[in-house]
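Listing S7. Sequence submitted for prediction.
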Amino acid sequence: MIPGVMTAAQRLEMVTDFIEAVRRNELDRADQLLPDLGGMRSDACWSAAAQLHMSRDRWSEAAEALSHIKSPDDQQKLHLILSRNLACMKSHRPEVYHIIANAGEASAYQIHPSKSGLPSIIATRPDGSKVMLAGGADPAQAGREVCVTLKPQSEDGKAIAVFSIGDGYVFDAIVRKSPRLQFGRRQPIYLLEPDPRLILACMLLHDFTGTDGPIESDNVFWFIGERFGEQFRLAMLTDRCLAFPQSTIKLGFDQKAAEAVIQKVFLELGELDTRCAAEIKEYYAPISGGDFARVLSGQSGRMPRVLLITTRFSTVLQYSTRDAADAFRQLGFDVQVLIEPSPHHGLTRLAIKRVLSEFKPDMAFQIDHNRFEHVDLFPSNLPFVNWVQDLLPHLMKRQTGQQMGLRDYALTPSTQRWVDEYAYPQRQCLEFRKLTRIPDRPISWTSRSDTVVYVSNWSQSPQTIRQEIIESASGKNRDLLDAACQRMIATYMAGGSLASVGHVRRLLIDIMREQKLTAPESLLRQMTSRLFDRMNNLLFRQQGLLWARRACDALDLKLQIYGTGWDKHPDFAAHACGTIEYGGALESLTRTAGVNLVLEPFVCIAHQRLLDALAAGGFCLLRANPATQIIHATIELLALAGEDAETASMVRQRLGASHGADLDQLQAAIDAIDTSPGAVDHFALTRQLQQSGFFPMQGELLPMLDQTTFDSPDHLMRSLSRFSRDESLRSDIARAQRQAVEQRYNYVAGMRQVVRFVASRLQNEPQVLAQAA
């Protein structure tokens, strides 16, 4: 015999010895023999191996062995399911596995067919009587019916508690049918089961594994065993963003223990809520505006505290809030960010109260939301800052401005407009713009001269946006908006464009005249904004992208488009590169691209993409916007008029007749692009932005902006041809523009301005109150 080679007879003898060792429960000897059993094994051998692994709690190996049995009996089929479940539980929920593994024999529960033939479980009560745990004649149908009943709660993401696992059908169905909600939200599901032996019995019937199964799903919480009530109480009291169950599903034959736990914890949370409210009131009641001003200004001898509220269900908001928080830290603030820790968490009222009572912030800060939206959660005297980043309907209403209290502050994109049109209190509004964080960059990098990159999710078709717009309207407004959409699409198809809100307004007015319609100014502004923000935004971007595609084809450059939906676009599918993750991945892509396109119909510094791209180290080509030239002209005339000139009338008075024609020409250009001609003093607006640090006192908004802006297909072709061949020129311009962004538009400078603004308003409150009286 060749050394190390086993004959068939010897292998058969070893297999026989192995099977016999397992039968006699000689597990150590069986473990010694197992590694040498190579080659094809019989069902008997695989069965013995599975038995050995199960005895050793090696559930993955047991499942593997059982899966090799060619003709498994009923018990082996059950053991295969059990092994898979326990292997998964041991890996993903070791604390629950430990409870189940030490639960003892499950003799109180027996597998028994239901009336439908599906296996269910018969439980033996303490008095010896037996009860079938199936939810009706067909346990699978029972699971489906419960899911239908729970659909409204599930689609709202409301937490559900399941009292007992029953025979497993309903519980498994609830978990697997739990929907993936908008922005990735998940519904919390709590299982309360005092008897782990019943779970063990269910694991013989159901495969609970898989990413959507009860074991691996992060939104499912297992509270089991004799201490299940303590586990549930601890979770509810320590995880402040975990929602209390709004609905309960009662399975099994005894839910009294679970009901008692739910009731007790509910009352305890109520007491905690009352206690937090009392602590908040006691702490904040005596604090004056001057007290807050001294703390925020660093004159109190302690670190000022700021609470930032955001949501994980908006990528832009959470990253912007993160960057603002980092800036506050650099300014010496103690910072806490309140955000859902996971997709199945929520910012509950009690969660906010607990943060307020524990952290005791000196200022609250939230993007796109006001204090009153939280009803009575925030004390009325706590300074609350709303950074208005998006033109959202709930912010653009007079009722919103009218509900702002004395210590509510708004960082607005146009103070005068928000004061005049939406009744925001002027003394509490700060003219503010977008900011960017300064990311970590390598010491040096090389850009790919032949690569042109565009990043955007505006990949929808114009007809899709048209349908969205008209479906949001009714009556004559619906027909009017439909006609406007069609006219806008035709304008772009003919090679024209609508570069501003004012251009869209005039198109809408022309159609109204044709149709002999009238509308109040407020409705006209509303429809204009809707058409500009949705339809024109898309058409303007995609027109510029079409120019870029043609130029890249002619110049042999690689156009790469990142974002959702481009792979389905008829004009750009060939250039679609999928999505790119915000943060380091996007920064690296931007930095190494030869050219980054910025195609949005806004003032250059008003779009986050440009600021982020320049800060990351990228070079950008921008589609021209008339507002940029208008701002530059306004800045130059303000410089001529002197630093104390703050309004259009003051500038005209200072400059006199020698500049009268220039002022008239500029005002006509302003009226041409404005959504409400004459409603806003753009000289006052520009001066406010200079005082806030967003605009320079003289010169362009960004260095060499005239060289990196294009206004036609031919202009873009020339620019791409020039810059794609000259990396040194791209690098020099990008560096100069990056330095301007870092000085003017970084979060530290912006948050410093916010703190100064709020502190000054707080300090001057007594005078304001006296005037009001």
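Caption to Listing S7: primary sequence and predicted structure tokens for the chain studied. Residues 297 and 326 are 18 Å apart (CA to CA). The first strand starts at residue 109 and ends at 113.
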